[in-house]
From TrEMBL:
Coiled-coil ranges per UniProt: none
Gene Ontology molecular-function annotations: protein kinase inhibitor activity
Residue numbers spanned by region Disordered: 97-119
Domain of life: Bacteria
Protein name per the record: YbhB/YbcL family Raf kinase inhibitor-like protein
PANTHER family according to UniProt: PEBP (PHOSPHATIDYLETHANOLAMINE-BINDING PROTEIN) FAMILY PROTEIN, UNCHARACTERIZED PROTEIN YBCL-RELATED
Key words, A-Z: Protein kinase inhibitor
Entry-linked InterPro entries: PEBP (IPR008914), PEBP-like_sf (IPR036610), YbhB_YbcL/LppC-like (IPR005247)
Pfam families found in the cross-reference section: PBP
Amino acid sequence: MKLEVRGIEDGQPIPERFAFGVYSSTDHMSFGPNKNPELVWDQVPDGTRSFAVIMFDPDVPSVADDVNKEGRTVAADLPRVDFFHWLLVDIPADTRRIPEGEDSDGVAPKGKAGGPGPIGVRGVNNYTQFLAGNPDMGGTYCGYDGPCPPWNDEIMHHYHFEIFALDVDSLGLEGEFDGNAVREAMKGHVLDSARVTGTYTLDPDLR
């Protein structure tokens, strides 16, 4: 398969229009346009019956004690974990494109609904956990929400956009399913896949 993420070159910085958080010289971070980028794919294998999209950041701190704290930094050698930013499953087999802004166009305080969306079925991304203690933002975040790494992290973050061609019409996922559930449900059903990786940081020293 071949995947194009329009506006993002493989290995290059992600434009701010796709970000949940953008750099601010006064407050470290402010909300960004948070548009999902346009995905276009082809060279689909025979037997494809649906697609799934996953976007994740493998560079998220495993311990959040120092995240976004004045006078502290998130150490480069801290163990890292996956943070899911976008989950779409049961995308019809005849689909070859997700338009820019179709699944997200702006930050939605307290999240947005899961289940069937404009294209496919939305899963729950990890902003649900990250913002759970915030009275103004806490809620269930589904579908796409873009990059917003800690502004005091010593490392650049990488964002993997992945498309999977599957041999089933549906993964059978219902309710508030997460990225691990998608990966588990796809086991044994992936005919092919493709990936594009972009980078992003809010640390002025890395920008």
